[in-house]
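In full, the data.
>
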Amino acid sequence: MTSRCTAGDIATSNPEECPSEDAQTAIDWLTERDYDSAPVLEDGRPIGYVTRDAAEAASLDSSLAEITEPLTVDVLIASDSTLDAVLEALYERPFYYLADRNQVTGILTRADLNTEPVYQHLCTKLSQLEQAFRNTIQECVPDWVDTTPLHPDILDDVDERLTDAKDAGVALDRIHYAQFSTLVTIIGNSDKASQALGFGAGHQASSRLDPITDLRNDVAHSTPIIQNTDRGLTESGRTITHLLDQYQLIEELLATHKEWLDASHTQPASVTTPTSNHSPNGWLANNRLTTSIPLIPITTNSSEQLESNSGTSNQKSSMTESMVATTPILLHADTTVLNSST
């Protein structure tokens, strides 16, 4: 089951109200806190919101009322909006307000996507995608070791992982010990596997899946997934446009894989559970027990600091997040990433 992730989970709760009386003090107050927007209240009730852009565009002696914009439906988002709806909304504009019973209860910005609920949700989705890739390879490229141009070091790493698993008595099929980037390489070199996932050809799969590999590594290591709060595709770092495209592709791939399994009446590969090493026959293949068990992500808690992207509009810009790095049992960190400064 995919972890819950809604606008209410992601948003900054109870945003500060702008206490300024004119444009100049509003600019100073917003800049000091690195806010792009804040609600405006009158007698404890919200009457609108102010943005730094509007304050900077107005005369410095303009009153707060003159630069206050109304809280219309186009700047409000329901707290139960799902992540796909949140991404589509934040593509259209950089922030939204959450409201309940005539009160502003939260503010949602693009920078809020670098928070724990989003990481947990994406980690679950990427774990499901990784298993879908393994199933596809097992069905379409069973001879992947011989047919895919992989560096010998990669195959050595796979075999080392498999050996460790055998020693621990938890060995699976060999493909389960290939890293995510290796799975992408195998699929990209097989038209049959690529087409099973809905791509026209292997080269198309490679170009579309490489950004997913980068996203997966950022999620696995709890590094920012939104790296630039602007919207353009030409901006440096991952923007809301990139993330929306990548999330939609993940959803499409999972749906396509499910349809492919249903059409071919093929179930995910069984997990092979060897008998105890203390049994008379030890690791003999003909004495193994084969059962189909669900591959459930196993999570571990780790404390990570999420640094806010400089210049973002997030009202959490100075807050250190306690990050839950949700690491599925099949989600291995790439060696190149592990050797980097993470």
